[in-house]
Amino acid sequence: MTSHAAYLPSGLPIPVPEPDGLSAPYWAGLQQNRLLVQRCAHCQTWQFGPEWLCHRCHSFDVQWTDVEPRGRIFSWERVWSPSHKVLREHGPYLAVLVELPEAGNVRMVGNLLGDPMQPVTIGAIVEGEYEHHLESRPPYSLLHWRLTAK
Amino acid sequence: MARTPNERTLRGRVAVVGVGETEYYRHGASPDPEFKLALKAILAACNDAGIDPREIDGFSSYSDDRSEASRLAAALGTHRLRTATMQWGGGGGGCCAAVANAAASIVAGLADCVVVFRSLAQGQYGRFGQTDGITTISGERAYLMPYGVLAPPQRFAMRVQRYMHEHGVKQEAMRAIALASYHHAQSNPRAVMFGKPLDEAKYDASRWITEPFHLYDCCMENDGAAALILMSEERAGDFRNKPAYILGAAVGAGYRSGAIPHNSPNYASASFETLAPDLYRMAKVGPSDVGVVQSYENFTGGVAMALAEHGFFKPEEANEYLTLDNLIAPTGRLPLNTSGGNLAECYMHGFELVIEAVRQVRGQSVNQAKRSDVALVIGGPMVTPASNLLLGSGATL
Asked: Are A114 and A145 in contact (CB under 8 A)?
C-alpha cells in the first residue's frame, strides 16, 4: 500500500546509499514498493541492516530477498521535543521498531501512521505503507507502519 | 592480594594521582574555546597532583576529542610524547575505556605519565541534541533520521521502552535516579544545577522529551573540560593526594551489539552483560564490595539497565531498589552519582563521573559515601563499545 501525504514535514535528512553502495538495493526497492532484506544463499540466515557477508556463515553470497511488509511492534516512542528545525511547529509523532517474523525477526524503524496520540501496544500487528518522495532531489522512499485492521 | 606471575591485569599497577576540571558551563556559555578548556583542565590536574606538566608523556581520550594529542604536547612543552590513544567509537561509552587504554600503556612500558581528558564546547562546535544542516544521510542514521529519530533522546528511548516492558520497570524508578543526581548536586558548588533542586512533583510535571523520557531523564549539554593523571604504582605514593588505584576495567559489548539499525540481538540492554563479569574478575571484587557508583546518565533508563547488569539487583527488582533513599550519600544502600553526574553536575561526557570516583576513594567528595574504598564507574550505556572501571584505595590492594 502507498500513502500519499507525508507523515513528517519535508526537510529532514534524505536517505542515500553509502559511497560503497552497500544499501543501494534496499533504497531502490522502496521506490518500487518492494521491501528487500538480505538473506544468505548458503545458510538462509536473514540479515538487516545489510553487510557484505553473512554474519553467521561468512558467505559473501547474501541475496536481496523480497519480504512482505508485515510485522509486530517490538518497541515504540512518542517524540515531543523537536530535534530539527522543520519539526518545531509539528507536534508529537510516533516512531516504532517493528520486527518481521517472516524475515528472521529482523527489525526496522519507521513511523506509526494514524493519530500520534493513539495508545501503542508492544506486540501489536502492523503492515507497511510506502511513502514516496520521487520528485525530491535525490528521490527517495520511506516505509511506514499502520496497525492491521482486526 | 597476591598476583600470580605473568598475570595480565591492570589491578593495582596504575593509580590516578591528580584530577582537575574547568568551571562547568551551560552549553554555549564558556568564555574559552574548547582547546583552551582542555589545557586548563590538564594544568588543574597536574597542580592537584603536584607534578610538572612537562612530565606528561602520553594523552588518552575518547569520542574523537578534537583537542589533539600532538598539539597538546606542543602547547604544554612536554619533554616528549610517547603515547596518543583514542578510543574507537561509542561516544560517552568510552569514558572509562580512555582510562583503561592509558593504564595499559603504562603497564606495558610505553609511557610513564599519561593524562586522560575530555573537552567539549558545544557552543563552539554545535549541540548533540540538534541535527539541523544535514541534507542527505547514509549508513545507520539513514534508517532513522528520515523518520524523525534524530538525536540521542529518540535514538535511545525505544531501547528503554522495551526494557521497561520486558521487566515491568516503572517511571518512578527512572525518577529516583534523576532525583539522586539533583540531590547530590545541591551540595556541589561545581554543579551547573547547584541551587536548582528537583522534587517528585517537578519531575512529574516536566515536559516529555521523547516518551518514556521526561526532561529530567535526559542529560544536560555543557561546555567544559576534565582531566586526570595516571602514574605507575611505583610512583603513586609520591604525590600530594592519596592515590586511587585502578582495580579493573573492561571495554566492549556483547554479540552483535553493533547490528544496525536497532538490530542487536540483546536489544533491551545497556551493553554490560559481558563487561561486568570481566571487570569484577580483574578487580577481584563483586557487587557487594562496591560502596559507591557513578553511572553515566545519557538517560535515566540506561542507568537502571547498567546497574542491573552490574549485579546490584535483578531487573524485576528495579522498582524496589531504585528509590531516592537507597541512592543517596552517605548512608543509602548504593550512593549513586554523588557529584550530580551528567544530569546535574555537568555533562562532561561522563569524565566528571571518573573524577568523582577518584574523590570518593580519596575521601574528598562533597557527598562522601560511608563506604568508598571501592568505587565503580559505568560509562555510557546502550552503546558499543561501552566501558567500566573500578577504583580502589591502597587498602584494597
From this structure: no
**Rounded-to-integer distance, Cα B265 and Cα B179, Å:** 32
In a domain, residue A22? The reply is: yes
Same domain for A73 and A147: yes
Q: What is the ipTM of this complex?
A: 0.97
Q: Are A29 and A74 contained in the same domain?
A: no
B131 Cα to chain A: minimum distance (Å): 6
Do the beta carbons of residue B351 and residue B118 sit within 8 Å? yes
Residue A23: inside a domain: yes
Residues of B assigned a catalytic role? 296, 347
Please report the domains of chain B, with CATH numbers, ordered by start residue.
Answer: 14-122+218-396 (3.40.47.10)
pTM above 0.90, yes or no: yes
Q: A3 falls in which pLDDT band (50, 70, 90)?
A: low
**Contact assignment for A109 to B209 by CB distance below 8 Å:** no
- Contact call for A17 and B136, based on CB within 8 A: no
pLDDT category at B6 given cuts 50, 70, 90 is confident
Encoded amino acid at A57, one letter:
C
**In 3D, which of B291, B327, B293 has the Cα closest to residue B309?**
B293
Q: How far is A149 from chain B (nearest CA, A)?
A: 23
Domain that holds residue A28: 17-67
A chain contacts of residue B134, beta-carbon cutoff 8 Å: 13
pLDDT-derived band of residue A1, with 50, 70 and 90 as boundaries? low
Average pLDDT, chain B: 96
